[in-house]
Write a structure and sequence with these properties.
With 604 residues, this protein is an alpha/beta fold. The chain is 21% helix and 30% strand. The chain contains 11 helices and 29 strands. The longest helix is centred in the first third of the chain and has 30 residues. InterPro entries: Aerotolerance_reg_N, Class_I_gatase-like, Double_TM_dom, VWF_A, vWFA_dom_sf.
């Protein structure tokens, strides 16, 4: 027990006041003269003893009451130990423990825990300690406490390092911030790490520890290391069924201090070993492996590339998730069909979208009077090429199709009229009229919305010329994606319900311009159809520490439940954690210690 106001303890002398009063006011028994004592009765000795005890108890009670008042004014502190009072120079210390992936190297983390226990053994009786761990990010394992048992329990909870990557600076900055609010003036930080070079990034700047903070870096790393890692697996996240896929490529790297000359690489699909390859790394530290296996079929594929032949197995695998989707079903409604390909409205469009087995689209063609609800409901995108108008039932079914999530591309031509269309409720604009330009005059595409996903993969330069175009009047809420050189809209976009609608100001054949003859025509058609199909394209690969969608803490393949679907995703570690090059503890000390400090040199 200690007292915050110990001077009040001198008030204990006041407990002597009742005793002094008793002694001062004590009176001797008076003498009384009796003629005869035969009429007096003797007082029992027990009664006299009881009265004495009662008087002494009352006296002690008065003294105790005064003592309690004195103790109250002295403000006793019951949750502090007497040993803390005897500790002449207690400290506030933060122990920072590196638990990143590189600490999984054989024997390194065990050495770190041994050093941590030695640190605990050397604490003074009044010291308060906090523990910070470097995993996916710098986090507080336990806040300041002077209870050794609580600190030991916190250390016991560190059973293994994480798969994450974080910088040494982030851990030191967190520890420095905690010490700013610590109890004692004597403050220190102890860092247990393998001092991986990539983890020391960011220490070259002007940031330093606060003045007065002592720093002790302790190196628990291994000088000689062997490591093979799969740096990258090259495979598209999405493939189209029936289209020849590129082979799976893997990049293998030797990143330890000792070279590894030979390695065995395996390709696993859905957990089954499909192919093995031997890799020679005699003269190089990195090599690309091409597997002969070609992905095919449909659905999702879980891919793992695994390398063997080193001492560090925790980074020997890299994962990828691939979705093999069916082709996009497209229905083309040809408003000016002809047996002569030159006059056929849909010739160029079908040639660009559905020719050959390598096309990602499955194109079905029909004419307006054969457009049935069954045809509309069986596809993902409907394209109206120079269609004059549709019947009421056809328009109603098509409108419902778009609002339910379907895509619609409308390209008017000379068969289209300016009269009110039955699809007017879902179109992003109105047809005001068509302009036939003079001979030698033409319109060109002068501007487009580069931020729109439709144009993300398209070139900047458009060289198409149009001798005749439609004048479009955009509706409220519609987006103008392309403009002609006279600033009039060339392409309008609108979201209708869950679907999308594109309206062009020109037909997509060669009758009004040379657009189909330009190299940009095919990618424009493909990107337009992909945009209208609106298939989900969420990322299928994440790195440990990504927290946008989930808290990933272990590498491998896992199923992620999204709002619209369930998807296999690959979780990999940061490749920087596989680079085992190290820096010295002295360089870390020199980089972060404040010049105002007069601390000891770092511990060897």
């Amino acid at each position: 027990m200690v007292f915050l106001a110990p001077l009040f303890l001198f008030g204990l002398l006041a407990a002597l006041i009742p005793i002094a009063i008793h002694l001062i006011r004590r009176e001797r028994p008076p003498k009384v003269v009796f003629g005869s004592i035969r009429f007096l009765k003797n007082t029992p000795k027990k009664l006299i003893l009881f009265q004495h005890l009662q008087q002494w108890a009352l006296l002690l009670l008065r003294a105790l009451l005064i003592s309690l008042l004195v103790f109250a004014f002295a403000r006793p502190l019951l949750n502090q130990s007497l040993a803390k009072l005897l500790d002449a120079d207690p400290q506030s210390a933060v122990l920072v423990i590196d638990t990143t992936l590189s600490m999984r190297y054989r024997g390194v983390f065990a050495a770190a825990l041994a050093e941590a226990n030695d640190f605990m053994d050397n604490l003074g009786p009044g010291d308060e300690v906090a523990i910070v761990v470097l995993g996916e990010r710098a986090t507080v394992l336990t806040d300041f406490t002077d209870e050794p048992a609580a600190l030991r329990r916190a250390l016991d909870s560190l059973t293994e390092p994480s798969f994450g990557a974080s910088s040494i600076r982030s851990g030191l900055a967190l520890a420095d911030e905690m010490l700013a609010a610590a109890t004692f003036e004597n403050r220190s930080i102890t860092l247990l790490s393998d001092f991986q070079a990539t983890g020391a990034d960011g220490l070259e700047g002007s940031w330093k520890l606060a003045p007065g903070v002592a720093f002790t870096p302790i190196d628990v790393g291994v000088e000689e290391t062997q490591n093979l890692t799969v740096v990258d697996v090259r495979v598209p996240a999405t493939l189209i069924d029936g289209i020849q896929a590129d082979p799976v490529l893997a990049r293998i790297r030797s990143s330890g201090s000792l070279p590894v000359e030979r390695a065995q690489v395996s390709l696993l699909i859905d957990g089954e070993v499909i192919e093995r390859a031997a890799v020679e790394l005699t003269d190089v530290s990195e090599k690309v492996v091409e597997f002969a296996y070609i992905l095919e079929g449909s659905g999702e594929r879980a891919i793992e590339v695994r390398v063997q032949g080193d001492d560090f197995i925790d980074d020997n695998s890299r994962y990828a998730a691939v979705t093999i989707e069916p082709k996009v079903d497209v229905l083309v409604v040809n408003g000016e069909a002809s047996s002569d390909w030159f006059d056929d409205e849909a010739h160029w469009f079908e040639l660009a979208s559905g020719s050959g087995v390598a096309s990602p689209f499955f194109v079905t063609s029909t004419v307006p009077n054969r457009l049935t609800p069954e045809l509309i409901q069986s596809v993902e995108v409907v394209v109206l090429l120079n269609v004059s108008d549709l019947g009421l039932q056809q328009s109603r079914v098509l409108s419902d199709f778009v609002r339910a999530g379907g895509g619609l591309l409308v390209a008017p031509g000379d068969q289209t009229s300016t009269a009110g269309s039955t699809l007017d409720s879902i179109l992003p604009g109105r047809l005001v009229g068509s302009q036939r330009l003079r001979i030698g005059d033409y319109r060109i595409i002068a501007d487009f919305d580069r931020r729109h996903p439709l144009f993300a993969k398209l070139p900047v330069e458009w060289s198409s010329r149009f001798q005749r175009v439609w004048t479009l009047e955009a509706k409220e809420g519609a987006a103008t994606l392309m403009r002609f050189d006279d600033a009039s809209p060339a392409l309008l976009d609108a979201k209708v319900g869950a679907g999308r609608v594109l309206l062009t100001a020109m037909p997509l054949d060669s009758e009004w311009g040379d657009f189909p003859l330009q190299p940009l025509y095919l990618p424009f058609v493909h990107e337009s159809l992909n945009y209208l199909a609106a298939r989900p394209s969420e990322p299928a690969s994440y790195v440990i520490g990504d927290s946008e969608v989930a808290d990933f803490t272990a590498v491998g393949l896992t199923r992620l439940e999204r709002a619209t679907r369930s998807q296999w995703v690959a979780i990999n570690s940061d490749t920087g954690e596989s680079a085992l090059a190290r820096v010295s503890a002295e360089s870390i000390f020199d980089a972060v210690i404040n010049p105002e400090n007069t601390t000891l040199a770092p511990r060897e």
